[in-house]
Amino acid sequence: MLLDNTLTKFSFDNTNINGQVVTLCSRYRDVISTKKYSQDVSLLLGEFFVAVCLLSASLKYNGRLILQAHELRGMASIMAECNSRNDIRGIVRGNLSTLSNHVDFYELFKEGTLRLTVEPESGKRYQGIVPVSGKTLSNCLEYYFEQSEQLKTKIKLVANMEAAAGILLQKLPQQTPNEQCSQDWIEKSMLLETLRKEEQIKLSHNDQLTSLFPNDAVRILSIKNPNFRCSCSRERILKALHALSYKETQSIFEEGDSISVNCEFCNKNYEFCKTEFENLHN
C-alpha cells in the first residue's frame, strides 16, 4: 500500500551506497490547489519539493536546505526548502501568465541561477551554484554533487497533479576504493534507470525497492512523514521589518496605527501595531 507523505531512508548491506525514496500526496495536492499555479508550474514546484526532501534527509545536523532559482525566462524565481524536521515549503514568483503552456526546464533555466543552500541552526551557512548542465532538474543535481561534492549521485524526480515522488542513490566516500564498490555502484545505477515514472507514483516504497533490487539486501534505516509546514512566525516577521529604517517604518503607518502582513508562503495573516515598531527602534 502506498503511504501518504512518506520518506524512507535505506542502505545496501556490504556496500557504501545509501538512498532515500519519498512520496508526497495529500498535502502536496493541498499546496498546489491553494497556489493556483498552472499545471506545468505546479509539476516543476513538485519536483523542487521532492528534491529538497531527498537532499535534506542526508543532513547530519539540525538546519534547513534550500533549493532556489532566480532570473528565469518568464519566472522571477522558484524555491523550496526542507528542514531537519522534514517540514517543507516553497513558492513560485513572477508574472507566470507570460509562460508558454509547456514549460521546458532547460529553456526556462538556462539563463538563470540555480543555488543550493544549507543553513545549520548553529554554524556557517553554505551555498553552492548548481550548473544548469542538463535537460532536467535531476540531471543538474547529479552533475553538481559529482563535480562539487565528489559524491556520485543518481536522482529520479517525477510529479503530476496527484503526487510528487523521487528516489536518490548516493555512493558514500570510502577510505580504500576497490573494484567491487565501483561495480556495485554501476549495477545499482543501471537498475535505477529502469524505474518508470508511473511506478514511482503508484508503488509503495517497499515495492519499488524490491522490484528494483531483487537480489540485494536492502536495509530500511528509517521511515518518516514529511509535512508542508511554514516556518513563518510573528517574531521572524518583526525581525525582518526591524531591518527597515525608522523613516521607512513611519511611512508604513501613515494610514493608521496598525498594519496587516500576509506570509507569501502560507498566507497566514499577522497584525502589528505602531507601538511595537516604536519599541523596536527605541
Question: Secondary-structure blueprint of this entry?
Answer:
Blueprint: E1 6-12, E2 17-24, H1 26-35, H2 39-56, E3 63-72, E4 75-83, E5 87-93, H3 105-109, E6 113-120, E7 126-130, H4 137-148, E8 152-159, E9 164-171, H5 179-192, H6 197-202, H7 205-212, E10 218-224, E11 227-228, H8 234-242, H9 246-252, E12 258-262, E13 269-273, H10 274-281
Parallel strand pairs: 5-11
Antiparallel strand pairs: 1-2, 1-10, 2-9, 3-4, 3-6, 4-5, 6-7, 8-9, 12-13
In CATH terms, the superfamily of the largest domain is: Hsp33 domain
**In CATH, what is the class of the largest domain?**
Alpha Beta
Mean pLDDT: 88
Which structural class matches the secondary elements?
alpha+beta
Number of domains: 2
Summarize the biggest pleated sheet.
6 strands, mixed
Can you put this structure into words, describing what you see?
The protein has a 6-stranded mixed beta sheet, covered by helices on one side. A 5-stranded antiparallel beta sheet has the order 8-9-2-1-10, with helices on both faces. A two-stranded antiparallel sheet has the order 12-13. The longest helix is centred in the N-terminal third of the chain and has 18 residues, at about 40-55. The N and C termini lie far apart (about 60 Å). It is α+β, with helices and mostly antiparallel strands and about 280 residues long. The chain is about 35% helix and about 30% strand. It is built from 10 helices and 13 strands. The chain is elongated, with a radius of gyration of 21 Å. A hairpin with a 5-residue loop joins strand 6 (about 115-120) and strand 7 (about 125-130). The chain folds into 2 domains: about 5-230, Hsp33 domain, CATH 3.55.30.10; about 235-280, CBS domain Like, CATH 3.90.1280.
